[in-house]
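Supplementary Methods. Inverse-folding protocol.

Structures were first reduced to a discrete structure-token string of length 127. This string, shown here, constituted the complete conditioning input.
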């Protein structure tokens, strides 16, 4: 299945989407380093999220918020990513999407593996 952006738009609208957000991925947007959503906290204006929790017991204190996130499977069904969350790093400041593959068999795991430095050329995927 190689749908066009127009095909995906129709599928999302049919499934009830009122807004579609696309983000071209950088080479360091991967399952290890999470997906960078931007400097500052502007991404929080675009994504609905749950209660924010404080995490000060880690190397870089941060805040986390659950996100109702699903992947669209090849058969056009949503498959929930139950551990998806936003991580807010106030010291940078930036927001990242994390946990979007954990516990979700339909996620694009093979596309989200870190690329060894000597093999980096760019990625061709939108989330």
């Amino acid at each position: 299945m190689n749908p066009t952006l127009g095909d995906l738009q129709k599928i999302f609208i049919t499934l009830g989407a009122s807004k579609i957000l696309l983000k071209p991925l950088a080479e360091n947007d991967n399952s290890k380093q999470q997906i960078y959503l931007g400097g500052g906290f502007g991404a929080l204006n675009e994504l609905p999220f749950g209660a924010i929790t404080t995490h000060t017991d880690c190397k870089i204190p941060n805040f986390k918020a659950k996100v109702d996130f699903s992947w669209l499977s090849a058969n056009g069904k949503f498959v929930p990513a139950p551990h998806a969350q936003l991580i807010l790093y106030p010291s940078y400041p930036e927001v990242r999407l994390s946990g979007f593959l954990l516990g979700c068999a339909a996620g694009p795991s093979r596309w989200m593996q870190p690329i060894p430095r000597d093999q980096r050329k760019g990625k061709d995927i939108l989330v």
